[in-house]
Design brief:
The protein is an all-alpha fold. It has ten helices and two strands, in the order αβααβααααααα. Strands 1-2 form a two-stranded parallel sheet.
């Protein structure tokens, strides 16, 4: 964590003095991080006061996803079967924990919350995965229902921007290179997370406001979905 910053500064200085690291050739950075807090505002620990293990956090996230997906399967509102339950819950649970950690500014403390982490709305892995699945479903239906193969469209098709939500999504996508440049400067991955969330939000707005399948602009909009 950040309390180790001075230690690493001395290590880097020593590496320079003995010739292991050359200024302008090697870049040595200590990426510190803040303290993980519980929802009570105190350092995140188990009820017995011990440090929480990462594997336990991951297992709990998967368990909660299995429980929620299981309820949806019973209600007939899920697009997966019992056979897919554990694999799907694992992908969602593991992704949620990792993304929740990556999306924060590492220079600050943050509150660990399963409810926030597994929320279907907001800047979470669950929201991003849902947005991605929605786009892939449209692309899949484009092939099965409309005979439009996205791989073929990528070879010959062209994106034409007309609707404001199309323009908004296209402009967000254009920010990718700048986002990577910013991330390479300070080495904070939350820039990429913020970019992905903004693109997912713009994409959800696009497919809500613009009809894709069966529209005169279908080919262009399918390409924008991809």
């Amino acid at each position: 964590d950040y309390s180790q910053a001075d230690h690493f500064k001395m290590c880097f200085a020593a590496a320079g003095k003995i010739g292991w690291a050359e200024p302008g050739v090697h870049r040595l950075e200590h990426i510190g991080f803040g303290t993980v807090m519980g929802e009570d505002g105190k350092r995140f620990k188990t009820r017995s006061g011990e440090t929480v293990r990462l594997v336990d956090l991951l297992d709990e996230a998967v368990r909660r996803q299995e429980e929620g997906l299981g309820e949806r399967i019973e209600a007939g509102t899920a697009s997966i079967t019992r056979d897919d339950l554990h694999e799907t819950a694992s992908a969602l649970g593991y992704g949620a924990v990792k993304y929740f950690d990556l999306r924060r500014n590492p220079t600050t403390n943050y509150v660990f919350s399963y409810d926030r982490m597994l929320d279907l709305k907001g800047n979470t892995a669950i929201y991003l995965l849902y947005a991605h699945a929605r786009l892939e479903s449209i692309i899949s239906k484009g092939k099965s229902q409309q005979g439009r193969d996205i791989d073929e469209l990528l070879k010959t098709g062209q994106i034409v921007i007309g609707h404001p939500s199309e323009r908004n999504l296209a402009l967000h996508l254009q920010m990718f290179a700048d986002t990577i440049e910013t991330t390479l400067e300070d080495l904070y991955p939350y820039h990429i997370c913020d970019f992905l969330y903004s693109v997912a939000t713009a994409a959800s707005e696009f497919v809500t406001q613009c009809k894709v399948l069966g529209s005169p602009e279908m080919d262009s909009r399918l390409l924008l979905c991809r």
